[in-house]
Write a structure and sequence with these properties.
Largest sheet: 2 strands, antiparallel
Strand order of the largest sheet: 1-2
Strand content: 5-15%
Shape: elongated
Mean pLDDT: 86
Number of helices: 6
Distance between the termini: 52 Å
Number of strands: 6
Order of helices and strands: HEEHHHEEHEEH
């Protein structure tokens, strides 16, 4: 399932930002999203880019505030509250002044951005992420946004599988659940000991 290459890339960036910058649980352990400026910087580099963006801790904290709000979109869709998800996105679109604009930089050809050219770093990421989520929510495949169902994990994902049956944020969580189910079946088949 591919919404379109640009939208899919930006939705995946939203997933990475939400999972990196929001606290909670990840793969069976408590997740603290502190002190990850370098990781954010690396994860948000455009494909094929070797330039290192000048990202401050303040920039990351501003993006964290947006990430917490973007997370609400995934949670609302996962809970079946699509109207709420759409309202959250509409609010972000207004606040970030998301609007299509053609731009050219770094010797690249003209391409489409969804943020004001003079937007602050965090807003320049949040606006296109909100726009991409709006594209997904306005699509019959909006239910592809989800929250991991594995115990002790609340990371978000977008289901790009062919059948739309994904329930986990990662193969690691899927394997954890399968292994736990296998162990439970083994215990129940051996019966009580002694």
């Amino acid at each position: 399932m591919d919404f379109d290459s640009h939208t899919s890339d930006v939705v995946m960036s939203a997933v990475r930002v939400v999972n990196l910058l929001t606290p909670g649980y990840a793969r069976g352990r408590q997740y603290d999203a502190a002190d990850i400026t370098g990781q954010v910087r690396a994860d948000l580099l455009p494909r094929g880019s070797n330039r290192v963006p000048d990202v401050s801790d303040t920039d990351v904290e501003e993006l964290r505030e947006y990430a917490l709000r973007l997370r609400q979109v995934f949670v609302a869709v996962d809970d079946g509250r699509v109207d709420d998800a759409c309202e959250y996105v509409n609010t972000l679109l207004r606040e970030t002044r998301a609007a299509p604009v053609l731009t050219r930089h770094d010797h690249e050809p003209w391409h489409l951005h969804f943020h004001a050219i003079d937007a602050a770093w965090a807003t320049s990421w949040a606006a296109p992420m909100a726009t991409a989520l709006a594209v997904v929510l306005g699509n019959p495949m909006f239910e592809r946004l989800g929250v991991c169902t594995a115990p002790s994990c609340d990371r978000v994902f977008v289901d790009t599988s062919r059948n739309g049956a994904r329930r986990f944020c990662s193969t690691a969580c899927q394997n954890r659940v399968k292994a736990a189910a296998f162990r439970a079946r083994q215990r129940s088949s051996t019966g009580p000991t002694g």
